[in-house]
Amino acid sequence: MKAKFGDIYQFWLGSTRIIVVSGLEDVQHIFAHRHVYDQGDIFAEKFGLVNPNGIIALKGAKYKRHASIVGPLFRGNKINIHLDTAIDCTDKLLDRWRTYNNDPTQVHLNMIEQCQQLLLAIFGYIAFDYDLQTLNDENHSSENELCRALHTFHNTAVDLMQLPTVIGRIYLLLNQKYRRSQAIINQYLQRMIDQELVENPTTRSERKRTCLIASLVTSLQQDEMLEATKSEEDRKGLSRTEVMNEMCSFLAAGYSTTSTALAWFIHLMSKYPLVQSKLKTELAEYHHQRLSIEQLNSLGYLDCVLREVLRFAPPVIGTLRTLQVDDQLPSSDFLLNKGDHVLISLYNIARDVRYWSGPIDPDQFYPERFQNEDNTIRNKAAWIVFGGGHRQ
Ligand code: HEM
């Protein structure tokens, strides 16, 4: 599309006009001006139908209240301390694959599903201190009810993006499969909260610095009815429904992105054996050792490969913002009006020769592009696979 229409073009999502922005300078301007470009109203409207109190659907004072509770837990150092958990879960999956390998009846393995199960297991432990049992052998393949329910939840949210909101509401009411899935997800969320509630409050207040569920449960409002009478600016903490909605959005947003990235990594390693062998050489130093976070951070080529996987196949291809006032984009000079919706095309930027000027075309998979010092600064700015600005 970009090759044909340039840096700015529009399309219609149902009855909504979406303006696609693909020039890096314009995109940086959008991310830098949060009061002009706030979270996309479409997210609030559509995701609001399935998960009204999840952070992605929130704006203004309510967003601030939620972000102040969940935001601090997503800093790198809070995740890094769970490296051992990630390694243990991955070992469990590898053991399963070794067993399959010796089993002549197992001729086909759905790698996307396997990656989803791994990431859900890791996510369950890290975020919720809970065993989601997605790696238990009796639960393999499509038998896992939580995987299936999340899959339906995700697909329904995608369907809703294309429907007018009123039709979307009716669609949800009539969609039995979605309603069953939502009920299954809610059962899991309730169990996780209940498990956390039986924990001793003293240990919880220590764990809340590193564990999402401990932090969310600590934030539960003592008197929901009283908080509901206050203005949004004065409200503190989260209601039980809000906690459940946040857990749901983290589960959905967290496992689908990371498992997609892992599935692409596995696919690309099979397509590029030279890259795979360079990676193995780098890792050979730590053969049969449990990696520490410092050792992991010292693996320069692995870092390049992961960056390149996320550039080449970004799990999220774009993000939306809605104009709060009229504005003009600095590079394209395009005039935007209050209420316009812009889609920042992370995918187009990741594949644009203007920003990926190394020897190899950006349509090629080439991890070494991140090793080339001359290109580092230019490429760094264009590597925005996690979005930008205040919603990153
Ligand atoms: C490879 C992994 C991931 C990628 C590429 C990715 C990418 C993105 C992108 C592009 C956005 C939109 C940001 C913006 O609008 O500027 C986003 C938002 C979000 N992501 Fe991720 N993400 C990843 C992993 C995760 C994980 C593990 C979680 C788990 C909790 C998560 C939770 C969220 C949430 C809650 C939002 C909405 C934030 C808001 O609207 O304020 N993501 N992600």
TrEMBL record:
<dbReference type="Pfam" id="PF00067">
    <property type="entry name" value="p450"/>
</dbReference>
<dbReference type="InterPro" id="IPR002401">
    <property type="entry name" value="Cyt_P450_E_grp-I"/>
</dbReference>
<comment type="similarity">
    <text>Belongs to the cytochrome P450 family.</text>
</comment>
<keyword id="KW-0503">Monooxygenase</keyword>
<dbReference type="InterPro" id="IPR036396">
    <property type="entry name" value="Cyt_P450_sf"/>
</dbReference>
<dbReference type="GO" id="GO:0004497">
    <property type="term" value="F:monooxygenase activity"/>
</dbReference>
<dbReference type="InterPro" id="IPR001128">
    <property type="entry name" value="Cyt_P450"/>
</dbReference>
<dbReference type="GO" id="GO:0005506">
    <property type="term" value="F:iron ion binding"/>
</dbReference>
<dbReference type="InterPro" id="IPR050196">
    <property type="entry name" value="Cytochrome_P450_Monoox"/>
</dbReference>
<keyword id="KW-0349">Heme</keyword>
<keyword id="KW-0408">Iron</keyword>
<dbReference type="GO" id="GO:0020037">
    <property type="term" value="F:heme binding"/>
</dbReference>
<dbReference type="GO" id="GO:0016705">
    <property type="term" value="F:oxidoreductase activity, acting on paired donors, with incorporation or reduction of molecular oxygen"/>
</dbReference>
<keyword id="KW-0479">Metal-binding</keyword>
<protein>
    <recommendedName>
        <fullName>Cytochrome P450</fullName>
    </recommendedName>
</protein>
<keyword id="KW-0560">Oxidoreductase</keyword>
